[in-house]
Amino acid sequence: MLSSLRALPALTRLRAVRFSSHDAPKYNEPTGFLFGEKPPPPGQRRIKQPWESLWYYGMYGTMAIGATFNSFGYTSVQTWALKEAKQRMEARGEKYKYEPSHSSAS
């Protein structure tokens, strides 16, 4: 019984090593082509992958929306909130700028 308990950690280590082993990583030999893609023969166009159009529309569409928001000054929620708070406080007749009171405790 004692000898089988001593062998247990060794078996566990061997099992972990055996199960975690795998083939060596594959190495793609450099071809000199961009992304490993061969250019099409002269007179033919490259065939686009199905995901490429979605990526272009998503990337450039997001940039266009961001540029539009940036040009109109919608850079943060805090900018809008400060403007709205000033308008509401002015409508109630309150001051929105802090002015310290002159106390004699100084």
Largest sheet: none
Q: Low-confidence parts, pLDDT < 50 over ≥5 residues?
A: none
Oligomer: single chain
Distance between the termini: 84 Å
The ordered string of helix (H) and strand (E) elements is HHH
Task: Report the radius of gyration as a whole number of Å.
Answer: 34 Å
Beta-strand residue fraction? under 5%
> What is the residue-mean pLDDT, rounded to a whole number?
78
Number of helices: 3
* Shape estimate: elongated
Structure description:
With 106 residues, the chain is mainly alpha-helical. The protein has a domain at 49-92. Helices cover 54% and strands 0% of the residues. The longest helix has 22 residues, at 50-71. The radius of gyration is 34 Å and the shape is elongated. The N and C termini lie far apart (84 Å). The mean pLDDT is 78.
Short overview:
The radius of gyration is 34 Å and the shape is elongated. It has helices spanning 2-20, 50-71, 77-92. It contains three helices and no strands.
List the helices and strands and how they pair.
Blueprint: H1 2-20, H2 50-71, H3 77-92
Keywords:
transmembrane helix, single chain, mitochondrion, 106 residues, respiratory chain, transport
